[in-house]
């Protein structure tokens, strides 16, 4: 109760003018259509953004150039940079090399392979985006499962779960983290220091769970193991020259992320530099092909969403929601943190965590603004009492994706690929694995936050 | 000559619900004049409507798992094709047939028919009549035979 602030009780929630209702209506209708999936989410986001401008909730300058109300270009260009780098590395066969090598490291034993694939997926997801990771790992998984004559479904589900857990560990691992980092001006190392330890614990627990659940069930025959052991992973490397250049640039980019804070570079600067350098080194004569493979639909979804959120931030809806949340926990920040963690987890299990975090980011900032009205800039965004809230939001939004097959893009991809391979994963079969793991990891996150930020 | 003059009238066809195993048996038994089984057959539904065509390439494709690409297939083990073939033997024709079938009118000219075969990179063309019913098939080989006969019938080319 020590954090109760007079602002919470006193402030008039919002100016209920026409602009407020226009913006709120556009926001609600857009979100309802996005959740219903009747129209493609990117189309909805672009139309919603256009309406915010058309009805003059925002003017174009605010939408394009004002950090508080408009497009977060740091997020957009960080994603563009990383997508270009990954698009150039993919054809080298590097990821297939890692996957085959992992299967051999598992000595062709089904259980060991499941554990190693889960760990490799988690690490790759922390460094690349989750969708790319599962797109690369899932086909090899189906192949190895056929070689060993085992059911690929548990492997694929475990990989999707590991991908979402691993992605939580770093700034670049999962879009919610990229968005939170940009809003709160957090660095790559902040995420390594605060989230990676929690993720390491979660992955250790996941490995134990895999061993307990599948230890007895996964069996293969010695002659089938021989098939895996006979594979020569070096055959995967199609372009060793480009691979060397790619790994050099990747190492440079990772070093850039580690030091971007002290060197005062934004993460997007690092990613764009890496993308430019690798485009140059690859000697590509067809940059249009590399650029065409950027996931423009995702990027435009972000762009539209940022403008829609900008509209409801400007009219005060988000501030009103922030005050409601503070009133609910009576200004107790530990309570707010726990509420944020669990609410985010369940929200992300059901809806896309990108629009969710896009909404919650300004909400957390408005909450901070009403708690510490005298503070501004970094002193406000990274107020020591606010930091656990950012980590709760990140952990909840990323880990919640594991709850259902539609909770995260990685899940959707795995389920789709499995179905095309003739192994349909029903909604409930995914939930049977995903929900317990989600509850377990969010529970670990809860203990972690409590111990690290509130107990000591 | 017109298409209907060189087409082979339809005697046998596949059904969408046939298994691939039944399909290859039908295709093997339907021998052509050169004594070999046909390499593609139309798929008609129970009302006789054309719904697809199944060629040997479709059967080859059926054995390739969806997850395979050129980067992964180089790791495949000895005996994998045989394993996959056993796995799909009892799958339905409708899962693997080509659904977008290019057809040719029975009154069409041989020139139009030849152009179609080459432009669309086809081996055979189902022939449909005025009512839209499939009445025959034109094989690339039969068009070639018309052309080669013309070549041979000509006096020797001046050197």
What is the compact description of this entry?
The complex is a heterodimer of chains A (456) and B (159). Chain A has 456 residues and is mainly alpha-helical.
Outline the structure in words.
Chain A has 456 residues and is mainly α. Chain A contains 24 helices and no strands. The longest helix of chain A is centred in the C-terminal third of the chain and has 29 residues, at 427-455. A 4-stranded mixed sheet of chain B has the order 1-6-5-4. The longest helix of chain B is centred in the last third of the chain and has 14 residues, at 140-153. Chain B starts with a helix and ends in a 6-residue tail after the last helix. The mean pLDDT of chain B is 92. Classes of the chains: A mainly alpha (456), B alpha+beta (159). Chains A and B meet through helix 8 of A and loops of B.
Walk me through the topology.
The complex is a heterodimer of chains A (456) and B (159).
Chain A: H1 6-10, H2 18-36, H3 41-54, H4 60-65, H5 73-89, H6 94-105, H7 110-127, H8 130-148, H9 153-167, H10 175-184, H11 188-194, H12 196-214, H13 222-229, H14 240-263, H15 267-282, H16 287-292, H17 296-315, H18 317-328, H19 333-350, H20 353-371, H21 377-381, H22 387-400, H23 409-420, H24 427-455
Helix pairs in contact in A: 2-3, 2-17, 3-17, 5-15, 6-7, 6-8, 7-8, 7-9, 7-12, 8-9, 8-23, 9-12, 9-23, 9-24, 10-20, 10-22, 12-24, 14-15, 17-20, 18-20, 19-22, 19-24, 20-22, 22-24
Chain B: H1 3-6, E1 8-9, H2 20-29, E2 40-44, E3 50-55, H3 56-62, H4 70-73, H5 80-88, H6 93-96, E4 104-105, H7 110-119, E5 124-128, E6 134-139, H8 140-153
Parallel strand pairs in B: 4-5
Antiparallel strand pairs in B: 1-6, 2-3, 5-6
